[in-house]
DNA sequence: GATGAATGTAAAGTGTTCTTGACATTATCC
DNA sequence: GGATAATGTCAAGAACACTTTACATTCATC
């Protein structure tokens, strides 16, 4: 599952650690999700999308078309 | 995390088993998600929302406000 | 009352998500 | 060169998502 979290985060001048603190997850979790090592849980996907004021489908893309 | 999968499914006259087959998951998985026993993975949440032609935020509600 | 379809739930097993702690690299600043 | 900040990654373990198998209940129909 692709995502654009790194772009959204850096556009706001946040470090991985700072974003993790905002969402109550570790910086390693942010790093792993940005690197695509695994997908976040649904609750964390909600937190991420809400933090960036976007729909989940606008932040993540499972590559099955009709994303939004 | 709340969801309205049962309402969406029954409105289409589908059994839990039939929905599971459509999405390639077991009927127990559909049952557990409808019952709120656990949240689906993000990929399964995408499949469910896409099947019902809705945004993930319209199918699931993590109760933190500003759902859509 | 027997049959079949739909549902609820439990147990055991597998793979995934997330944690903490640790170590390495790179870049900047003094 | 030494200190600090940001990032990449690994390992071990806890917690969660999902599977198969199995058994029970409910309801409709015969």
From TrEMBL, chains A, B:
Residues 5-59 form the HTH cro/C1-type domain. The keyword DNA-binding applies. Keywords: DNA-binding. Pfam families: HTH_3. InterPro entries: Cro/C1-type_HTH (IPR001387), Lambda_DNA-bd_dom_sf (IPR010982). One of its GO terms (molecular function) is DNA binding. PANTHER family: DNA-BIDING PHAGE PROTEIN (PTHR46558:SF4), TRACRIPTIONAL REGULATORY PROTEIN-RELATED-RELATED (PTHR46558). This is Helix-turn-helix transcriptional regulator. It comes from Gluconacetobacter tumulicola.
